[in-house]
Amino acid sequence: MRASRPAVHPVEALPPAAAQAQEQAQAQDHGEGEGVAHPRGVRMKDPPGAPGTPAGLGLRLTQAFFAAAALAVMASTNDFPSVSAFSYLVAAAILQCLWSISLAFVDIYALLVKRSLRNARAVCIFTIGDGITGTLTLGAACASAGITVLIGNDLNICAENHCASFETATAMAFISWFALAPSCILNFWSMASR
Amino acid sequence: MRASRPAVHPVEALPPAAAQAQEQAQAQDHGEGEGVAHPRGVRMKDPPGAPGTPAGLGLRLTQAFFAAAALAVMASTNDFPSVSAFSYLVAAAILQCLWSISLAFVDIYALLVKRSLRNARAVCIFTIGDGITGTLTLGAACASAGITVLIGNDLNICAENHCASFETATAMAFISWFALAPSCILNFWSMASR
């Protein structure tokens, strides 16, 4: 196990300009991903997938599409309201779809006006919203998966239920969650690393 | 509330070795979480709840206790293996319990030898492990909750099932996840903010 402090060797004090250049070189070494050299006080470029980037917009559209697909497939069965977990999946998919579409519009706006979305308050709101919708979507998908497996594998009563629709809707909700996770992690990362 | 740095009076510049010794002494004097004067390049003290702190150890023990309680309550019913989601809850609770106990031992060791656990690789492993076990525990808890609600509210067949045990085990798993979330968020935060 390594000690918590790096080894410090006494060195001569550098003049301010040289010290700043050294700091920049250090910052370059420790940069994330590609390691961008940026002077103090100027923001880093957004990593791909962050809000306001084309990859981020793609993630949002993927989330919204699969949440809408889960909603549509589940709502197409006529007996989903009889099971609480399936109703909850419909509610979570609606919330997920609305949230992702809202942020997709924000991303489109940021791309059109070529603005960065690395505003402290905006990133904080995005992170909290992603965390809440992600937890709800994952919970709904897991609850539906539990019931689908109960109906299909444990009780073997698929003949009298819409197992295929339930399974498809559950899978769509999981895919929507998998597309949400990178957005949430990237937002949290950029919130923490400022 | 105290300011993050103590009041500084201008003094004569110390030679580098003496200054370093003084800084170390200052860092030692101030307890964690109470605003530590730390020189440039030396890491901050751990926030409460981070690994290697008493609060972090408390979180780990809480997680392990509630995961063990969920496991014990669920395993005390004789018909849990007939439902896949309940078997999955047992598996996830075992994993959660082992992970939290392991990290609790690491925390105890770090507290005994008074070392910080802010090692980059250790924090990365803790974060990934917390993320995986947290997702599994939340998924298992949600799947169990879906089935418990199906049995209790939708089908009303609690008379022939151990509804109380299923509900208790599900609640314990949720509490374990709620105790895991701060650990995971704090680890991720300290990984991102270095």
Automatic annotation (TrEMBL), chains A, B:
Principal subcellular localisation of the protein: membrane
Region Disordered: start-end pairs: 1-49
Keyword Transmembrane helix attributed: yes
Domain of life from the UniProt record: Eukaryota
Low complexity bias spans: 17-28
Family assignment from sequence similarity: Belongs to the Casparian strip membrane proteins (CASP) family.
One Pfam assignment: CASP_dom
Membrane-spanning ranges: 57-76, 88-112, 124-151, 171-189
Gene Ontology annotations for the cellular component aspect, listed alphabetically: plasma membrane
Subunit composition and interactions: Homodimer and heterodimers.
Protein's recorded name: CASP-like protein
Keywords noted in UniProt: Cell membrane, Membrane, Transmembrane, Transmembrane helix
Domain Casparian strip membrane protein as annotated: residue spans: 51-179
Membrane topology: Multi-pass membrane protein
Compartmental location: Cell membrane
InterPro entries: CASP_dom, CASPL-5
